Every structure is written in structure tokens, then in C-alpha cells.
Amino acid sequence: MKTVNKSKEEVPWDDIGFVISSRYRISVLNRLSEGPATPTQIASDSESAVAHVSRALQELRDRSLVELLVPEQRRKGRVYGITDDAEGLWRIIKAQQMV
């Protein structure tokens, strides 16, 4: 019999569905899983428009999956990082081959 490490209640399926429903959110988390980056760096690495990346960053911040690593007042050179929750979420997404 195969065992599952996490019960259905422990796996954040709502957040997983939210992330995988947008290629931009996937690109942002994929890039940030490698280390902190600016929106311009993320856009360049994922060959996406900065506007799409910025929107995805805000959506992910709203769910506490991404955090701003510099003061909120800074308008240029804003560096973002992935949260611990998002790291676990990203591991599940990759392990389940959802991207």
C-alpha cells in the first residue's frame, strides 16, 4: 500500500491551483526559487513583459507567497524573495510535475 506524506488538508491545493493557473505566476516562483530578484530580472529570465511580472508579484504577495525584501517606499531596485510557504508549495508543484 502506498502512503502519502501529507494529508489532503495539509497540502495547500488552493494555493497550488492559484499558482499553476497563470504562466506568469509559475515563472515568478520558478525564478525566485533560485534566489531573490528584481521584476526586471524575472521578466528577462522568463522572457515576459515587466507589467505581467509585476502583476504576478502583487498577486503572489497578496497570498504571502512572495515578499518584498527592501523598504516598501523604494520604487526602483525592488528586490523580491520567495517565502518559506511558497518554497514548500513550489516543491510540491515540481514533484507532482504540475508545470
From TrEMBL:
Pfam families for the chain: HVO_A0261_N
Keywords (A to Z) from UniProt: Plasmid
InterPro entries, A to Z: ArsR-like_HTH, HVO_A0261-like_N, WH-like_DNA-bd_sf, WH_DNA-bd_sf
CDD domains, per database record: HTH_ARSR
Residue ranges of domain HVO-A0261-like N-terminal in the record: 13-67
Name of the protein in its database record: Transcriptional regulator
Native organism: Haloferax mediterranei (strain ATCC 33500 / DSM 1411 / JCM 8866 / NBRC 14739 / NCIMB 2177 / R-4)
Organism classification: Archaea, Methanobacteriati, Methanobacteriota, Stenosarchaea group, Halobacteria
